[in-house]
Amino acid sequence: MASNPFLQSNGEYSQRGNNGYYADERNNSDRIGDFSEMEVVLRDIHNSWGFMLDENFDPVTLALALMDDSSVGKGKDYGAFQRILGNLDAALKTIVDDYYQGFNNSIGTFGGVLQHINDSQNRVAQMKINLKKCKEELLEKRTDLLNMWHKSQQYKEMINLLETIEETRTTPEKLESLMNSKHVYAAANMLVESWKTVLYDLLIEELHNHLYLKNSYCDNRWAEYVHDQQKLPDIKILPRSFDDLAMRKRSTIDGNIKDEDMFALDENDVLAEDLEINPETDSYYYMEIIMEALAMLGQVPPALETIQERLPLEIYALVEKTIAQVEERHSEQSNTSSVRRDTASEDSDMYFLDKANTEAKNEILKDLLWTLYSKMEAVLRGQRFLETCARRIKKRAIRKGEFNGSEDVFNIYHFHEIWKPVQIEIRSLLQDYLTSRERTPASLQHSALTPDNASGKSGFSSTREKNKLLFKFTESPEDQDLEQAYQRVRTNLYSSFKKQISGFSFSDTDRSESFPHSSVIDKYASDMASKGHKVLVKPDAYNVSVLLKPTMAFLQRLHQVFPNYDDQGSEGFGSFLDDFAINVFLPQIEEKVMQLIHHATVGMDAFQDDRNYKNYSKLPIVKSAVALISVIQSLCRTMHSMPFHTEEYIRMIEVVLLKYYEKCYQRFYSMVVRGSTHGSKEVNVTEMNISTSGDWAQDESLVGLLTQNPFFNEDSKIDAEFIRALGQAEITMELKLKDGRQLEADELIFDSKRLIALGRLYHSLKWFVREIWELRTPRQTTKVSIVDPVSDKDPNEEDLSEEPESSQGANSRRWSQSDAKEPENEDPNPVMLSLRGETAVRFDTLLTTYQQLAETCLFTLRLEARCHTMYYLEMVIREGNYYLEDETYEPDPYVITLNSDLMEVDDCINASLPAKDEMFAFDGLPALIVHLLISEATYIKRMNKNGVQKMARNILALQQNLSNFVPSSQSSTLDRACDYYQLYNLGSEGLIRSIRENGPAFTFDEYLVILGLIHDVNKGADSEAKSATPETPTGSPDQRSSANYSEWLMKLDEVMADYE
């Protein structure tokens, strides 16, 4: 038993009863608890069957072992295993029997809890969705809700109006009823209150008439626009505090009144009214009287509230009246100015970005703004004066104890409350003249009044339907009986007021204008959100150049009226102008500039002659250059008129220069392309085969020689030896580029239109660069768009930068002024493009690229003439016959063609370039001709005296033709070629004797060619015979042979050796 792992080693198994339970444990079941039997079974399992609790236990192995009765099996333990199983089942059954109801209840409770948790989760998820939806709806801009809010405010105002009307209508009946019932005190109180109300309304209207310049006595507080006005007029009428001379002296500095003392009034000063004078003659004095009268009535706080509420309506009416006055003044001018305009002028003006309208239209805009700002200044000065008067009255009332220590009932509006509606009206007006976007109903709703700004108004469209006011008695249907009855009441009312109150005088016109307004303001009338102002001038972003100066002058004057005004706030005019420049003006200008670049450079006539080129230059200039210079000058003028974000203007100018350079570069390649495919179409320069002259003109080595030419540099000190050496170096470089091959016809340019176009492009680019440079450093002594070609420093030019001028800038100033056009009228304010640092270097680099392209055009014309010369002279010598039987009197046909081509090139150059450029184009050409005639002589197969005479005629024809466009000193160099071929007539002996007597005039190889022609060594060159007897030339004194040729060759070598 001890070895049995399933039994206890201490003999506890023997203590079990027949029923399988442990006796001691069973007896203690009540002591252990409800789960005691289960605990006993579990303890037994742990003690005897613990291996079954292992994670790796295999029940199959145990089952097989229990079924095995052998000595190695565990069949003997099968009974113990069954007892453990029975005990376990009995324990579980006991527990289930005891706790069955609890289990059922817990299962049901758990299901309910789980259901509640699921329901809570669903409700939380739905609540989250609803909250998110509410948030989205609250953040969504609902125009219908905004309109409903406006409607509610309008309905409230309508109710107030109706209540006021009803109260006014029933006052006589109530008064009569009180008198009949003998309530005399209440009747007297009602009568006094009614009279106060009527008097209050009259005072308010009189105050508004002077505050908003409706009265004729206020005309001295503002001034109409005068031509060429540059600032707002000075104030001529001041508050009464300045009647004292000492006050004037104390508050005056250099003739200007100090801003902080402008409206300073003594709070202890008692106003004394002079009944002998008309108080309206002094507007400030009259407004002060009205404020004191309102103080006497105790109505200053409601009066200030009424003034603030009526401000948007009054400002709107003031702008409308000013627009009507300006329109009337300019109606005749507008009719006369709308005359025919020349089509050419319209095309030219299109590129002047800062001339969006004609001068007459700009004058209308200036008149409107300067006049309106003068009125606005007077209104704001009046508002400032009323504020000062109200503060004085408030202090006086506080000192007297009329408010019982409470100051909240007497609120005085701040300047920002007055300035905000004025600013909104001005911004709306400026917006109408700067942008032409239409206001749709949706946009009107978007720009309508907000709860935070119920008295303001936003921008308006230029074309709006002027809806009628919501309430206006003067527009009601006329009832004659009612009108007569009301007229009698009104007459009696005014008669009584004239007797009781001095200074009140109302004409019918005044009544009709003032009575529709009252102390009850219909500030929610529908016209406030839909009515706009009539636009007198076509809206355009470039109108800002006209609007800016008067607006800035008005803002400066505003700082005098309100010294503490901060213009840089989020609602200031500074932020408005900056926002307009960034978001509206600059994008529109950039878009317009790109459109103008496309319009100027894309088209069949982009590189045609401008019809008005004589206004700029003596020679024709292409349209695109004139157009884009106008664009750049306009950008410069705008940059100076709007001196902020200048880097954007400079960037746009750079874009213009880069875009135009691309077009000019493509234009050059289209002119030098091989064949007849050229024109204004855009081409891919990398896929083009260009002419030889265009190719050579871009070779750096050859360009380096050409730029040293004195005629190119306009060097007055001409060194003949230097010119000769330079010309020879150029010939050597050209022959090196030619590489010994013979030019073909398709490598040349025969179309004269293309040659003229190259000249036009060169001169236009030259003029374009000069104009750009003139913008950078304008001359003050004369407005010639050019710089001094000798000095790199303009004596009248200001030192714009401490940095030294770049080499590109110095090279860009090298252009000649011989073809510049003197302006008829000097501009006192020249357009400038001041640049610094890296920006200046970039511009100089751009100008240098333009200059290089222009020089390439000029070099191409020069090299084209030289290529024609090479092509035809090679044909003259290699294909010409100089072994003639008869004498000829005509030059070679190729010489005639060459002369014709050279004359055509000269005509093309004269048609597009000045005389100095013609000199450069043909300079050194005679030397090239001489070099070719001599160096190509080796290709002459045979020659006789008639052939020499023909060559002499060729040379003479070339010399005569060259004398038309080169100096005689150069054309005479062709005598050297003539002398060279005349050596043939000297014969061998004469040739040697000439060298001995006069020295060698040519090289050994050149003498060798002539000696070979004399001996006719090429006669049998096409045969295989190594030696042959040449025919004796006609008239030859001696019979020559190959042996004689060798002897004369040795003599030539000996005589030339003496001079080496």
Automatic annotation (TrEMBL):
GO terms for cellular component: exocyst. Residues 278-552 form the Exocyst complex component Sec8 middle helical bundle domain. Residues 1-18, 442-462, 806-818, 1029-1045 have a biased composition (Polar residues). The keyword Acyltransferase does not apply. Keywords: Coiled coil, Exocytosis, Protein transport, Transport. The keyword Coiled coil applies. Residues 38-177 form the Exocyst complex component Sec8 N-terminal domain. One of its GO terms (biological process) is protein transport. Residues 795-805 have a biased composition (Acidic residues). Residues 117-144 form a coiled coil. InterPro entries: Sec8/EXOC4, Sec8_exocyst_N, Sec8_M. Residues 1-26, 441-462, 785-831, 1022-1046 are annotated as: Disordered. Component of the exocyst complex involved in the docking of exocytic vesicles with fusion sites on the plasma membrane. Belongs to the SEC8 family. PANTHER family: EXOCYST COMPLEX COMPONENT 4 (PTHR14146). This is Exocyst complex component Sec8.
